[in-house]
């Protein structure tokens, strides 16, 4: 299955984290429980269009689109 | 024999760590700072057995031993050095039982440091309700460390936790994860271990990562670790990625047969439903502004009555002391310097208490995280961060606690800009100044029959403060360069009811910090100002004394009027008066005379002093309670040479603008000095804000006159 950026999937779609495109950001994301193989879902988007809230590892995390775009999902 | 041991409480943010800390220690807490840094240090005393007690230290919440903010750095600093006075004999790791996976990352790091640990599974009650089953016995067996289930908000499991602590202290069971840390960088770890004479692989690995930010290492040691890293091409990022992934694999294995979830969590579903409304495109913002407006209204409305009480209490004390103390210089110092100084601090306590009541509720329920989430996009444009919202809102009451709350911002640039712009927000010390000045020139009329014109102007001043804060942030963003990328990663915790004891303790602690921090400075400055305003060249003072002594004798019925007149003349002749005259040429273009100059000088340390000084200058026994009398005198005041009114519309507007921008607050200066670790930023802040104040006031006066 082809890889897409997390920011390209629709709200409510459950995807699986595949990899990251930015090493520095990936460290922060890994620590927060965004691990390859983990299920991820965009839960909602802030009123001004950014940041977004995601569901991952059993909790809700918010991050900017800039960071979300470094997460590749399948 | 009573032994006291050090116990550290550590955990992720939002795990109920503070609640557990409060449950363990009650009000038996001491708030201070960690040595050398300004991170709040909370300790409390805990009695374990008849002859064993503990000093419990609440470490700032952190997700891992890789710190991102000044707050998180502390845990690393303490756990890294056995010589640190706070180095624990035992660590209690608090985790949120409803969110075990991410919470356990930190635990695995601590396990590999071979510290004696007790794992406290907090919020077990909520986990049960959410259908999460945890096999505690199996978890304890697999981890190899004591595990205790607690529900801190109901004080459940607290005694069991104490028992586990005692047992673990007397007969420690250590366990490691078995993750081969050594394999990440064998040469580096071996050489660091040899250099520092340590045994633990993970401790050495930690040093390789964090040596440059550890305050307890000498430069020589830092250089040595750096050299070892360079020699073996130590890759900071790659090794951390490998470590984190291995740790999560370990955690997944641990959790695979110890935790099961048999139904969708009810509170999570409810939380998502709430989010759909509270962070909705339109309603979300609308609700936020309504809440903001309510907070704003309450700060002023609810605190009016207690503020009046405090004021009256001080007037009472003043009268009593005047009556019982012998007349003299010491009495004058107490009544004219120390008492007004103290009341100047305490008068703001109600507003601060109300503000933190709301902030504590909003934070405790999880709503504040949503505010941060909603406002980040807007704040980003101005060099700020969603997390800057809390400091900016707090700035409406007082910049001192507001600036301290900026510590949670990870990115240094974002945090610095937040610290820099927060004093632009209209704090409560500006309120009496605005109220007095507005009453001078704005008629007490209503627009559309219900909107008070004076109120509208006051609101405009608050808006001006907010807009200037944003503009200043935008400008600073262009000037401050940083290597660190700005990012925003924040947990959105499940909505919960506020825990009232936590709210109460927060208010109490914030109020105490304010009195201690701001209080010291304001009190000291009040005394200095009193000296400046009371003393002057003795020749001039003698003349005034002689002149009035004669007339008071001649007409004893006029004593009190003559005394106030004499005081006004003395103020003019005092050092403060001379300073006012000295700066008059500089402030004339802004529309001020030397009398206003005195008020500028005296209110340099704290804005609210303006009203008191005005009443002294215009020879009335006035204070905030007697605004009307000061107001009348000021309205009548005329320039003795030209006969023109002193307080024209242009002058008053120019003064308001000056007070909106100038950083006339010693406490803010002091707190910025501490938070930025140096004089550079508070000085830049002082000069730019004063310059902006001067230029803007000049512009306004020239335009209007």
Characterize the structure shown.
The complex is a heterodimer of chains A (74) and B (705). With 74 residues, chain A is an alpha+beta fold. Chain A is 18% helix and 39% strand. Chain A has two helices and six strands. In chain A, strands 1-6-2-3-4-5 form a six-stranded antiparallel sheet. In chain A, strand 3 (39-45) and strand 4 form a beta hairpin. Chain A starts with a strand and ends with a strand. With 705 residues, chain B is of the alpha/beta class. Chain B folds into two domains: 3-170, Rossmann fold (3-Layer(aba) Sandwich); 268-443 and 451-469 and 481-535 and 574-705, no CATH class. Helix content of chain B is 62%, strand content 9%. Chain B contains 30 helices and twelve strands. In chain B, the strands form three sheets. Chain B has a seven-stranded mixed sheet with strand order 2-3-4-1-5-6-8, sandwiched between helices. In chain B, strand 3 and strand 4 (52-58) form a beta hairpin. The relative contact order of chain B is 0.07. Residues 621-625 of chain B have low confidence and may be disordered. The interface between A and B is large, with 32 and 44 residues. Strand 5 of chain A pairs antiparallel with strand 12 of chain B.
Give the SSE map.
The complex is a heterodimer of chains A (74) and B (705).
Chain A (H helix, E strand, L loop, with lengths): L3 E2 L8 E7 L2 H9 L7 E7 L6 E5 L2 E5 L1 H4 L2 E3 L1
Antiparallel strand pairs in A: 1-6, 2-3, 2-6, 3-4, 4-5
Chain B lengths: L2 E9 L5 H9 L3 E5 L6 E10 L2 E7 L11 H11 L9 E7 L3 H13 L4 E6 L1 H6 L2 E3 L1 H8 L3 E3 L8 H13 L15 H11 L4 H10 L8 H13 L4 H21 L2 E3 L4 H13 L4 H42 L4 H18 L2 H17 L1 H14 L8 H6 L4 H6 L7 H10 L8 H12 L4 E2 L3 E2 H27 L9 E3 L8 H35 L3 H17 L4 H15 L1 H13 L6 H9 L6 H9 L9 H10 L12 H13 L4 H10 L4 H25 L1
Parallel strand pairs in B: 1-4, 1-5, 5-6, 6-8
Antiparallel strand pairs in B: 2-3, 3-4, 7-9, 10-11
């Amino acid at each position: 299955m082809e890889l897409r950026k997390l920011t390209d999937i629709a709200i409510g779609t459950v995807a699986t984290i595949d990899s990251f495109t930015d090493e520095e950001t990936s460290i922060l994301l890994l620590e927060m429980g965004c691990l390859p193989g983990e299920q991820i879902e965009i839960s909602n988007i802030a009123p001004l269009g950014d940041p977004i809230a995601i569901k991952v590892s059993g909790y809700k995390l918010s991050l900017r689109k800039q960071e979300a775009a470094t997460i590749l999902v399948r | 024999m009573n032994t006291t041991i050090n116990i550290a409480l550590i955990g992720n943010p939002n795990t109920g760590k503070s609640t557990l800390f409060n449950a363990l220690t009650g009000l038996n807490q001491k708030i201070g700072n960690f040595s050398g840094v300004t991170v709040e240090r909370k300790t409390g005393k805990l009695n374990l057995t008849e002859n064993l007690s503990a000093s419990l230290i609440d470490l700032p919440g952190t997700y891992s031993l890789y710190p991102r903010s000044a707050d998180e750095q502390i845990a690393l600093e303490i756990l890294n050095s056995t010589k640190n006075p706070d180095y624990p004999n035992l660590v209690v790791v608090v985790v949120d039982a409803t969110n075990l996976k991410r919470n356990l990352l930190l635990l695995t790091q601590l396990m590999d440091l071979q510290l004696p640990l007790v794992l406290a599974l907090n919020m077990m009650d909520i986990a049960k309700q959410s259908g999460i089953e945890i096999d505690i016995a199996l978890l304890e067996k697999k981890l190899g460390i004591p595990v205790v289930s607690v529900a801190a908000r109901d004080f459940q499991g607290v005694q069991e936790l104490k028992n586990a602590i005692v047992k673990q202290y007397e007969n420690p069971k250590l366990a490691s994860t078995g993750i081969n840390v050594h394999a990440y960088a064998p040469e580096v770890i071996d050489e660091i271990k040899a250099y520092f004479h340590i045994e633990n692989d993970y401790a050495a690995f930690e040093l390789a990562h964090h040596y440059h930010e550890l305050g307890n290492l000498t430069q020589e040691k830092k250089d040595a670790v750096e050299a070892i890293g360079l020699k073996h091409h130590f890759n900071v990022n790659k090794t951390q990625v490998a470590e984190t992934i291995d740790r999560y694999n370990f955690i997944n294995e641990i959790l695979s047969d110890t935790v099961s979830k048999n139904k969708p969590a009810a509170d999570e579903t409810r939380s998502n439903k709430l989010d759909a409304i509270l962070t909705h495109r339109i309603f979300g913002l609308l609700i936020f502004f309504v809440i903001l407006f309510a907070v704003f209204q309450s700060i002023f409305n609810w605190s009016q009555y207690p503020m009046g009480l405090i004021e009256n209490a001080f007037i009472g004390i003043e009268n009593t002391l005047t009556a019982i103390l012998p007349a003299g210089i010491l009495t004058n110092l107490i009544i004219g310097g120390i008492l007004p100084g103290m009341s100047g601090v305490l008068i703001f306590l109600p507003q601060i208490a109300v503000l933190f009541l709301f902030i504590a509720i909003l934070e405790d329920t999880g709503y504040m995280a949503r505010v941060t989430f909603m406002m980040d996009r807007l704040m980003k444009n101005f060099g700020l961060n969603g997390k800057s919202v809390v400091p900016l809102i707090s700035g409406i009451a007082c910049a001192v606690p507001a600036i301290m709350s900026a510590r949670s911002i990870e990115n240094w640039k974002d945090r610095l800009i937040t610290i820099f712009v927060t004093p632009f927000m209209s704090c409560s010390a500006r309120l009496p100044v605005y109220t007095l000045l507005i009453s001078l020139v704005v008629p007490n009329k209503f627009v559309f029959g219900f909107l008070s014109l004076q109120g509208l102007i006051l609101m405009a001043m608050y808006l001006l403060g907010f807009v200037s804060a944003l503009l200043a942030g935008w400008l600073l963003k262009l000037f401050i360069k940083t290597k660190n990328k700005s990012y925003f990663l924040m947990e959105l915790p499940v909505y919960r009811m506020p825990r009232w004891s936590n709210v109460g303790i927060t208010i109490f602690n914030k109020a105490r910090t304010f009195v201690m921090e701001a209080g010291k400075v304001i009190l000291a400055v009040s005394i200095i100002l009193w000296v400046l305003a009371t003393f002057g060249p003795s020749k001039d003072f003698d003349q005034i004394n002689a002149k009035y002594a004669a007339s008071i004798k001649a007409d004893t019925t006029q004593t009190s009027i003559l005394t106030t007149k004499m005081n006004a003349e003395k103020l003019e002749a005092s050092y403060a008066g001379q300073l006012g005259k000295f700066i008059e040429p500089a402030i004339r273009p802004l529309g001020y005379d030397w009398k206003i100059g005195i008020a500028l000088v005296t209110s340099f340390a704290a804005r609210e002093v303006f009203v008191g000084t005005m009443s002294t200058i215009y020879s009335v026994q006035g204070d905030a309670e007697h605004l009307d009398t000061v107001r009348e005198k000021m309205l009548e005041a005329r320039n003795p040479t030209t006969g023109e009114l002193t307080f024209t519309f242009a002058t008053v507007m120019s003064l308001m603008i000056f007070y909106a921008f100038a950083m006339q607050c010693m406490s803010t200066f002091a707190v910025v000095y501490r938070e930025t670790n140096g004089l550079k930023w508070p000085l830049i802040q002082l000069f730019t804000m004063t310059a902006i104040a001067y230029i803007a006031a000049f512009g306004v006066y020239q335009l209007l006159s």
